[in-house]
Amino acid sequence: MEKDLGREIMEMRECYRNGNTKPMSWRRSQLQALRSFLQDYEVPIFRALNLDLGKHYVEAFRDEVGLLKKSVNLALNDLKRWMTSTGAKLPIIALLSSAELVPEPLGLVLVISPWNFPLGLSLEPLIGAIAAGNAVVLKPSELAPACSSLLANTLPKYLDNQAIKVFEGGPAVGQQLLQQKWDKIFFTGSAKVGRIVMSEAAKNLTPVTLELGEKCPAVLDSLSWSFDKEVAIKRIIGAKYGSCAGQACISIDYVLVEKSFSSTVVDMMKAMIKTMYGDNPRESHSVARIINKHHFLRLKNLITDPNVKDCIVFGGSMDEDNLYIEPTILVNPPLESAIMTEEIFGPLLPIITLDKIEDSIDFIKKRPKPLAVYAFTKNEDLRKRMVSETSSGSVVFNDAIVQFAADTIPFGGIGESGMGKYHGKFTFDTFTHYKAVARRSFFTDFWYRFPPWNNHKLELLEDSYNFDYFGLLLVILGLKRSRKTFHVN
Amino acid sequence: MGSEVEKKAVFDTESAKEVVKELRDSFVAGKTKTYEWRRTQLAAMLKMMDENEPQIVAALSDDLSKPELESSIYEIAMLKNSCKLALKEMKHWMMPEKAKTSMTTFPSSAEIVSDPLGVVLIISAWNYPFLLSLDPVVGAIAAGNAIVLKPSEISPATASLLAKLVKKYLDCSCIKVVEGAVPETTALLEQKWDKIMYTGNGRIARIVMAAAAKHLTPVVLELGGKCPVIVDSGINLQVATRRIIAGKWGCNNGQACISPDYIITTKDYAPELVDSFKCELERFYGKNPLESKDLSRIVNSNHFARLLKLLDEDTVSSKIVYGGERDETNLKIAPTILLDVPKDSLIMNEEIFGPLLPIITIDKVEGSFDLINSSGTKPLAAYLFTNNKKLKEKFVEKVSAGGLVVNDTTVHLAEPALPFGGVGDSGMGAYHGKFSFDTFSHKKAVLYRSFAGDAAVRYPPYTAGKLRLMRALLGGSIMGIIRALLGWSKP
């Protein structure tokens, strides 16, 4: 098995070296094929997501399929523009020269995707990698087996098999793949595995993009208008429980509110959950399942912790056989408890109360940098302070998760939440090497560029480098004496 | 005068931890964030260079016998330009960049804000010890970071001068120089940094990146490689030869990451090329180049021995067509040209980084691209001299390197509008000009949504109607949206 993998990858490298993936026509054909795949296989995709995660098909469309279609259309529309070299402005001294940045593919790249958005987080990077002209190996997560096998069995029917391959498997296959030489590795997953990926990449000096996680806080300011309050609560609840049941890197992990506002918030949240999911959320089939027993037990431990379980104010019931946990709200679990120190990645929402909402800034700063900071507030000062005093991948005001759908702003982390970014053109950029190309003519050479050296040449070079053309002229005309003298000889 | 015996403190993991803690406290206190602080640091750096140019030139002469002109221009003047550009443009760079928003997040506004990363580590090299230490520092300051600079111990005079000058002119609570060799660097690499920038070779780069991986620290690695020069016929040979010489021996005597490493030309043209080199080299460096003051020496005896090993290999030494003289006492090797050394020789399989220039001949110049690509590694730079338009196009299309120059060598380094960095084995990341600012910044996306304009379609309970509308919204067409609203499209 191992020898086969190595050989297959070598063949892919040959394919790339032959230039097969570089022409615009190839990239366009692959992107169009992906678009057809998304169209033709929409129903099987919904089915696979439902099998693996219990996702409702509307959620699947909103969070995965719909976004992918949008991305592939954007790539097709903008491909020509993205592939065009850009000219750099040059100073006058470089007369008769030109300079440009030529985008070129990195070569053979590896995309490793996670189980929570198994289609979206596999194909979004793939779209950018193809648009940038690379050969690609995709390794989807084995924890979402229906999606993994859908990709492995169906993509070859649509895409160029020599240049784009899907390798299924668990950690053993992942390890084997990491030991090959890649021109880039794009990894979405946990920080623990992120470190392993980067360490392996270091052996070959392979650049990496790591999309990780961390606890994303939502700061909920006391809003005076009831309309605003409604919308804020709706967005928080929708973002927490409605996107893979909180198993998303950009899920709201916990909420920070002022003490005086907290009971209103809890009441409104309870009401909102009822509105969205009915009295028995499980029956609504709108809340995704927990991915597997291991994570189920992990989440169970978070709320059965004796110091934590009394903090539950809503929900809390679990069904181990069906891997279902109902939307749960807690108030003020101890800050040292696991639920407040580890990324929750599940449908449990702690609400932490503060004396004043401004304290949220220090609270956030004390903790590792998250992928996103969310703040629901109309207070201009608080907003400014949030942006300038906290550090995170992104900041979103008055909403959550939607930044994922935006393709004009970069999506990525910082510190523990990752490195690198993508979405829209940023995905193309992350799989591209911008090669600097400078051209000169044989005319215009400055004789003072060459040895033997003397004071006169030194003065001329200094003025040239300072773009001091007037000074240059004076020295050449002999009207300005060299101020410099050699110090060392 | 009695001599003071100072007990030199050992810089170990504890010391490294303390340094990082002090800098982090300064950073968290917001010292490095203000425009004022950044501006005063950069202005102080300019003053530092104005007031200490002779000392800097002397240190470079000590470490490398670098000709004064090279020191003044390639190290000091370039750094001054870097500072001046940053001072001029910094306000503009620091401003958030407005981003367009689309239908999917309507109504909203968005911007990309440049945040400093925090506390960064810059490890520099010995060949341009002044420039390669402080040029990254300029970018890191402009971006608002606290900095530790670790200069190379192989250029000790410059390292200790840097330590002295930084202490005197810059804010020590935010910018520090740590001198030392392997133990000190290891202690530094064990700490958690917000970014590490390393300039040097591939072997150490792997160690740096592995250490960074433990803390998920992003890195910029500026490495090297064998930079090839393709020389076509039908060109202004004198100009081309001079430009190659300027890029090779005129740049620290070939000890530069972007120096031409070897030449590829046709069998027919080689004799003319060799003659041109002989003529111009003599014009520049005289009949006794070992005595010329316009060439740097080899930095130390290790590298001297390394280069002699390349030169004295059996199958290689017979291929010398010019030069080959050496002076071990003064660590000098004369500009040396070799013709058609074997492909498997040592000199053709490692980065030369010295004054030896092999010329490889092939039948047709078009074959040079395959020859370059056959090495399997991408160099930091590649050069082509030709008047043939098609050849230029093929060159840009087929040769992958950090940067390419047509009809010159190394000049792209001086252009701040071009990013300077490698690809593959020659490195990752880039800097110079605004790219330095960007490399030491975190580009934070900020999205402002209003409470109005909420699309119920996003939320459960989920229905086929909502799916229809969402399809239309994500599809972005107005007609689609209207049809969906009227119930005229498929679910």
UniProtKB/TrEMBL annotation, chain A:
Keywords on record: NAD, Oxidoreductase
GO MF: aldehyde dehydrogenase (NAD+) activity
Cellular compartments per GO CC: cytoplasm
Protein name (record): Aldehyde dehydrogenase
Record's catalysed reaction(s): an aldehyde + NAD(+) + H2O = a carboxylate + NADH + 2 H(+)
Family statement: Belongs to the aldehyde dehydrogenase family.
Keyword ATP-binding: no
UniProt cross-references to Pfam families, sorted A to Z: Aldedh
Domain of life: Eukaryota
UniProt KW Transmembrane keyword: no
UniProtKB/TrEMBL annotation, chain B:
Location of the active site: E222, C257
SUPFAM superfamilies tied to this protein: ALDH-like (SSF53720)
Residue ranges constituting the Aldehyde dehydrogenase domain according to the UniProt record: 10-446
Record's keyword annotation contains Oxidoreductase: yes
Biological processes per GO annotation: aldehyde metabolic process; response to abscisic acid; response to water deprivation
Catalysed reaction, written as an equation: an aldehyde + NAD(+) + H2O = a carboxylate + NADH + 2 H(+)
Keyword Oxidoreductase: yes
Gene3D superfamilies: Aldehyde Dehydrogenase, Chain A, domain 1, Aldehyde Dehydrogenase, Chain A, domain 2
Highest taxon of source: Eukaryota
Molecular function per GO: aldehyde dehydrogenase (NAD+) activity
InterPro entries assigned to the protein according to its UniProt record, in alphabetical order: Ald_DH/histidinol_DH (IPR016161), Ald_DH_C (IPR016163), Ald_DH_N (IPR016162), Aldehyde_DH_dom (IPR015590), Aldehyde_DH_NAD(P) (IPR012394)
Pfam families recorded: Aldedh
GO cellular component: cytoplasm
UniProt keyword terms in alphabetical order: NAD, Oxidoreductase
Family: Belongs to the aldehyde dehydrogenase family.
Name of the protein: Aldehyde dehydrogenase
Lineage of origin: Eukaryota, Viridiplantae, Streptophyta, Embryophyta, Tracheophyta
